[in-house]
Amino acid sequence: MLYSKLAKPYFFRMDPEKAHHMVIDGLHTASRVPGIPALMRGMYGVPEAKELEVDLFGLHFAHPIGLAAGLDKNAKAVDMFANIGFGFAEVGTVTPKGQIGNDLPRLFRLPSDEALINRMGFNNEGAAAMAARLAQDTNRRIPIAVNIGKNKTTPNELAHEDYRACLQALYTYGDFFVVNISSPNTPDLRALQHGDELRLLLSTVMEEMAVQAKKNGGTRKAVLVKIAPDMTDEQLGYTVDTIKASGVNGIIATNTTISRDGLQHLNAKETGGLSGKPLKDRSTEVIREVYRQTGGKLPIIGSGGIFTAADAYDKIRAGASLVEIYTALIYRGPELLRELADGLKDALRRDGFKSIHEAVGADHRS
Ligand SMILES: Cc1cc2nc3c(=O)[nH]c(=O)nc-3n(C[C@H](O)[C@H](O)[C@H](O)COP(=O)(O)O)c2cc1C
């Protein structure tokens, strides 16, 4: 109510990227004002519900709805994402060195399609700056995933060393990690999803995860790979096989798409990754296919076009253990989180499931 009636009309009159920075900086500042975090929890927090809890990757998630990567690229507002009701949050994509990203403008709204197009290009302050921020975050309420990538100037032959450097800087601070090889806005990044390049990348990542686990003590933290929705079935098959063989803990399906099918808004001509409603069905299809190919043995986080509880539930039934949102947060605001959680509880009850866990991949068994 508060968001749709007051904040959204104000933000939607502004340049999209300015609005974005204002939100992140605002949340960052608000998290330091006494009383505001508790107020936010009261207004937006999602009440605990046993049936929504998920235990995965050695971590506890109070409910399965998280924040997707890209909104909080520098881990400035992790506390506030917990306060407004997220079950977990992904920060980044972070690269070893800070970089400014692509030229402005690079973020576009397509309201009539309930979508966004972005070509940000991994603008971020770098791994050391993120590590310093996360080090101050001593009262963590939700699991935080760190999404890592490569600098634009690093050639693909050396990309694996960028991912290694991110893990070296950030292993201590993330609860789990995401290897992003699916953004369409870093030239050739998506080539890392295939063949020998993917094998080398994932073996380096797993090697470094083992080194860091030994150094830090305790069991190795989980690492997932985030894939694009634009692969052919054959490419997806090979990619999933390689991911399976690498020993990583899961897959995030999917990143934004380069497809422009079915769009009405004039901004459809902009280059970049398309997110939101038009991505919903394709990302669910990819989740379904990955679950089928892995026999449900490799956990999936579903991302792409979730606006309603039914959208989230479709992804869970197709095979996702957790889901993430980004674009719907911009269009609907934090009110959406309670709505999604309540709707998921209703859907579980309707289908006779006692937990999210029972519903994961249910479509494959009916
Ligand atoms: C402006 C913007 C920036 C994004 N930046 C990243 C990023 O840095 N890394 C990443 O893995 N995904 C990034 N994404 C993709 C989202 O994490 C998510 O996978 C995608 O938007 C699909 O979900 P949605 O339809 O709920 O937005 C970005 C998306 C948007 C809209």
Give the percentage of residues in beta strands: 15-25%
What is the approximate shape?
Answer: globular
C-alpha Rg (nearest Å)? 19 Å
In terms of per-residue confidence, which ranges show pLDDT below 50 for 5 or more consecutive residues? Answer: none
Q: What distance separates the N and C termini?
A: 38 Å
Secondary-structure-based class equals alpha/beta
Mean pLDDT: 94
Main sheet overview = 8 strands, parallel, barrel
- β-strand number: 15
| Number of helical segments with 4 or more residues | 13
- Kindly state the percentage of residues in helix: 40-55%
Order of helices and strands: HHHEEEHEEEEEHEHEHEHEEHEHEHHH
Give a list of the ligands.
flavin mononucleotide
Spatial strand arrangement across the major sheet:
3-4-9-10-11-12-14-15
Describe the structure in your own words:
The protein contains 13 helices and 15 strands. The chain has 366 residues and is of the alpha/beta class. Strands 3-4-9-10-11-12-14-15 form an eight-stranded parallel β-barrel, surrounded by five helices. Strands 6-7-13 form a three-stranded antiparallel sheet, with no helix packed on it. A two-stranded antiparallel sheet has the order 1-2. A hairpin with a 2-residue loop joins strand 1 and strand 2. Helix 7 runs parallel beside helix 8 and helix 9 packs parallel to helix 10. It is globular and about 50 Å long. The model has no long low-confidence stretch (mean pLDDT 94). The site of flavin mononucleotide has 27 residues, from strand 7, strand 13 and helix 11. Flavin mononucleotide binds next to strand 7, strand 13 and helix 11.
